[in-house]
Amino acid sequence: MVFLAVFFAWPVAAILRRGLLDDAGGWDPVGALRVLGRADVLHLAAFTLGQAAASTVLTLAVGMPVAWLLARVDLPGRTLLRVLVTVPFVLPTVVVGVAFRVLLVDGGPLGWLHLDGTVWAILLAHAFFNTAVVARTVGGLWSHLDPRAEQAARSLGASPLRAFTSVTLPALAPAVASAASVVFLFCATSFGVVLVLGGSRYRTLETEVYTRTVDYLDLRTAAALSLLQLVVVLAALAVGARARRRRETALSLRPTASTARRPRGRTWFGVVGALVVVVGLLGVPPLVLVLRSFSVVGWSLDAYRGLGVSRNGATGLDALSTSLRTATDATVISVVMGLLAAVALARAHGRLGSLADGALMLPLGVSAVTVGFGFLITLGSLPGDLRTSPLLVPIAQALVATPLVVRTLLPALRSVDERLRQAAAVLGASPLRVWREVDLPLVARAVAAATGFAYVVSLGEFGATTFLARPDRPTLPVLVGTLISRPGAENTATALAAATVLVVATAAVVAVVESVRVGELGEF
């Protein structure tokens, strides 16, 4: 909580305070309300909420068949399938934007659909990015539902659709609501995807905060927009926390044995349909991106040779080295903080535990630009002036990764039988030894998975890093965002090569994580 207070609550509060002051520094909350009441701001808020809601519906429609496939169908190569489903969620958002831009642009594989520059490009990219949330969250509960209730409904004459809507879907409702709230949160605060695909035509609260801060230095409007965004985030987190508690209660009442079975008969039609979704939506965009990086101007490695060319004093290889170094630092910070928080939350009960759990989720929803700018105006008053420290970017990345670490570790820690701890304590073990001898061996695989996810999320963080990284020391996602916004075939080629490097690195780490995965009970 001290870490969150210093590096999250304080910077965000400083920015929000700016929104409640007038140009002379006087207290003027009415002025903030006038800003929020402007027609352009209301239109911006309406589009942000509308595209987030539409993206959530589309993601649920795509993710539910994938959740069924992972939960109820025992296919060879399930680990590879889980990797394919999970990789999009941990890809840098700017890479997702670039992949769909390459896919949908005129002359691209799907250019004939004329979706480039439309809101559909944003919705499809959001569905690509968030399908794993639905598949993992809903699939975790679905794999533990007793299939006999649905079988009984079928034996009484219900059609497969009626059996699903009357029996299975109500049982899955806590997980569906939990996944939907998280997807809505991610889509409402999306930055890289909207920045790359929306251009100047489509703007959300998140991208407008960035534009107002960086391009116009309009801190008053940016702070007011951040305040409005915070209200939306708190509402989504409240719904998500309630749904998550219902999901955990539902899981605790289910058998632990997997219900996945080999497909037979007409089940194969559903399997083929779900695999088409996985391959078509989740597999094609990264594949097209990789292939395009080799064929910007004929088939060659010229794009990758461009990674060695200096731009603004840094090459692509320098950016890769910076990314690996900062991601390592951020992973250490986030795993330590996330583990401490998960241990505390696993033993916390009542309203205080719920409030703490919600507070830990806030960094996922608040504008990364708000946090980054808050760093610059607050951390200078700390000893050593962290604004010039190489730890500034890793700390910002750790704020985003820590909630994911907590959500990965918490189900594993809560599944540890308290009687094991009590038995060790009765035999004379100290609390530290109980943790070392009982808890740690049981959650070691979850810690390994959390570490891997923290690393790839930190490696691909784009929002706050865009604001904080020095021009001569960009990370690889920042370099991709910079190059893709510049004209010229060489810049585009280098951006595609750098994005491909991020895709390969992310897929490799996720494959390792899946090899040590801890079962189906983990959340997104």
From TrEMBL:
Q: According to the UniProt entry, where is the signal peptide?
A: none
Kindly name one Pfam family recorded for this protein: BPD_transp_1
Q: PROSITE patterns, from UniProt?
A: ABC_TM1
Isomerase as UniProt keyword: no
Q: Which UniProt keywords apply?
A: Cell inner membrane, Cell membrane, Membrane, Transmembrane, Transmembrane helix, Transport
Record localization: Cell inner membrane; Cell membrane
**What is this protein's name?**
Iron ABC transporter permease
